[in-house]
Automatic annotation (TrEMBL):
PROSITE patterns: GGDEF
Pfam family, one: GGDEF
InterPro entries: Diguanylate_Cyclase (IPR050469), GGDEF_dom (IPR000160), Nucleotide_cyclase (IPR029787), Rev_trsase/Diguanyl_cyclase (IPR043128), TPR-like_helical_dom_sf (IPR011990)
Domain of life from the UniProt record: Bacteria
Segments forming domain GGDEF: 435-568
Protein name per the record: diguanylate cyclase
The species this protein was found in: Luteibacter flocculans
Enzyme Commission code: 2.7.7.65
Ranges that cross the membrane: 375-394
Swiss-Prot/TrEMBL keywords: Membrane, Transmembrane, Transmembrane helix
Length: 582
């Protein structure tokens, strides 16, 4: 059955037509000749059942690597997890785990990514294959850099540059070192080392790493206020980047180009590359290039005076920006939780070792009846008690992190996810007991002007002040949460529409009358309110949010600083039905 694929493999540059040789060839060219690599993988796939187990695992690894490259994360995760969990070869498991970590980081499954990173670091101790270790250090460096562990990330990158396996160069390590230093804000100039590494990448056929370095160099120039230099670095290589068929990096390229052209006042090119960055972003996944693309499109429409289009793009930008902040928070929290779990497991292992030592000494006491042995037992029991105390303390720390994950970091009230969970629970109870409930949505008016005029620190104080005065006007049973930015929601259980309107009016007056902390001067703010009731809308949270959102939008259009009641007839007027406000 493999005769056909063996024959066609000759056309792909494989002189030895055996499964192992074909897989070797595909593996060797995957980073330099993606078309040939993909063709060889496709030729082998129909004959998977005829392969030996280790060759089948190698094919799954290559299929997972290709899916990760192309941004098909669901398929890539299936292939790579199969190799990691079932392959008998530690070297192949280490390579698959490294690629899986890359995939999990890109698809924002951070807790699993850091759990796999811990497994990868343990597996690295037993593997001697320099190529596999090279790949493992590469992914460890990237993931650690993404959570601010820059010293470890740089250490892995430098090790890659100092100890490359046969056939490898400084190209990979230099690219990771450049990104780690740029993200750590420790890059003050483009070291000649990076220019030399870029040339090495191109001369050895690793074009994607060369373009990655160019993306970082351009981002550095842009951050330093040199947009023309950023365009010079990227524009000449944009077509090369497109031919690489690497959509994630191409979208990053285009986002940086869009910002650079916007800084130069070239709105036509800024629009073109911003639209390309948004279109090329991975569907249904947060990507920073989508956030930057929407921001540039908003700025363009604002400069051109297109208020309606600017508002649409501003809403999309704010949603993407919130996703960015949530992503940073989730990544950091996942790292801390996994780190705590590793420490807790180590403490548990130490406790078991201590227990075994206690049993051994107890036996020695029975045999020798040595009084000094009793003293050792006391010491070991004390040590065990200390370790148990440490484990309990670590457990409390884990619970604290879980609590933090449900609270908004700035205001201390429910975050969006926890508010939805609590609100749905209250509504379900109201539906069973036939008790009406009401939802209030409110949004601080002209809050962007506060940030632009007084700075984000004052804006944060305004948000906290609004939450503080709102809390004083709410009941203990009310569910209060921050949906994102300057938008808040309150669910009032056992409440009629008239009562809800009065409560909303009370909140509006409280916010408008609130003074700065300790009498200090601060910008005054008002809020607009939209109210929805279960009486016309039913007990489905999504329905209440849509109706309240439409009422809030009417309040904004009516001049702000007012309260509007929503009903089912409002729904077609709401612009948020076509926008994912969350």
């Amino acid at each position: 059955m493999l005769l056909v694929v063996f024959a066609t493999a000759q056309a792909g540059g494989v002189s030895d037509p055996t499964p192992s040789a074909i897989l070797d060839r595909a593996d060797a060219v995957k980073g330099t000749d993606f078309a040939t690599f993909s063709r060889l993988v496709d030729q082998m796939a129909p004959h998977e059942a005829d392969l030996a187990p280790i060759e089948r695992s190698r094919l799954h690894f290559l299929q997972g690597w290709r899916a990760t490259w192309q941004g098909d994360y669901d398929a890539g995760r299936r292939w790579l997890s199969d190799v990691v969990d079932h392959s008998t070869g530690d070297v192949l498991r280490l390579r698959a785990m490294a690629t899986l970590i890359n995939l999990l980081g890109n698809s924002h499954h951070y807790e699993e990514a850091f759990t796999r990173l811990t497994q990868l670091q343990e597996l690295m101790r037993s593997v001697r294959d320099r190529y596999a270790l090279f790949a493992a250090r590469s992914e460890a460096s990237q993931l650690l850099s993404s959570v601010g562990q820059f010293e470890q990330a740089e250490a892995y990158a430098k090790d890659m540059m100092e100890n490359p396996p046969a056939g490898q160069t400084i190209c990979f390590g230099a690219q990771h070192l450049l990104r780690a230093r740029r993200e750590a804000n420790r890059l003050v100039s483009i070291d000649p080392l990076f220019e030399r590494a870029l040339q090495v990448c191109e001369s050895t056929g690793y074009q994607v790493f060369a373009e990655n370095m160019r993306a970082d160099i351009a981002a550095f120039h842009l951050a330093q206020g040199r947009p023309a230099e950023a365009v010079k670095v990227l524009a000449a290589h944009r077509e090369t980047m497109r031919r690489l068929d690497y959509p994630v990096l191409l979208s990053e390229f285009d986002a940086t180009l869009a910002k650079a052209y916007l800084s130069l006042g070239d709105l036509a090119n800024a629009r073109r590359f911003a639209q390309s960055a948004v279109a090329g972003a991975i569907p249904n996944e947060f990507t920073d290039s989508r956030r930057v693309g929407y921001e540039v499109l908003y700025q363009i429409e604002r400069k051109l005076g297109n208020a309606s289009a600017a508002l649409v793009f501003h809403e999309k930008y704010m949603a993407a920006d919130k996703a960015y902040l949530d992503d940073v928070s989730a990544r950091s929290l996942a790292f801390k939780m996994v780190d705590q779990q590793v420490v807790a497991r180590k403490a548990q292992v130490d406790a078991l070792s201590r227990q075994n030592e206690i049993l051994r000494l107890t036996g020695a006491l029975d045999r020798k009846e040595v009084e000094t042995g009793r003293l050792y037992i006391v010491v070991l029991i004390a040590s065990l008690a200390a370790i148990i105390w440490l484990v309990l303390r670590l457990r409390r720390s884990q619970l604290r992190f879980m609590k933090l994950a449900r609270r908004d970091g700035l205001t201390g009230i429910c975050n969006r996810e926890h508010f939805v969970e609590q609100a749905e629970r209250v509504l379900a109870y109201g539906a069973r007991s036939d008790r009406a409930a009401c939802l209030i949505l409110f949004d601080l008016d002209h809050f962007k002007n506060v940030n632009d005029t007084f700075g984000h620190a004052v804006g944060d104080e305004v948000l906290k002040r609004a939450v503080e005065v709102s809390r004083r006007a709410l009941h203990a049973c009310d569910v209060f949460g921050r949906l994102g930015g300057e938008e808040f929601a309150v669910l009032l259980p056992d409440c009629s529409p008239a009562q809800a309107r009065a409560r909303a009016e009370q909140l509006r007056l409280s916010i408008a009358a609130a003074a700065g902390p300790h009498g200090k001067p601060a910008p005054s703010v008002t809020a607009s309110f939209g109210v929805a009731s279960t009486v016309p809308c039913g007990f489905e949270l999504h329905r209440l949010l849509v109706v309240a959102d439409a009422a809030l939008y009417r309040a904004k259009r009516a001049g702000r600083n007012c309260v509007f009641m929503g009903d089912t007839g409002d729904i077609p007027d709401s612009p948020y039905l076509s926008e994912a406000r969350g």
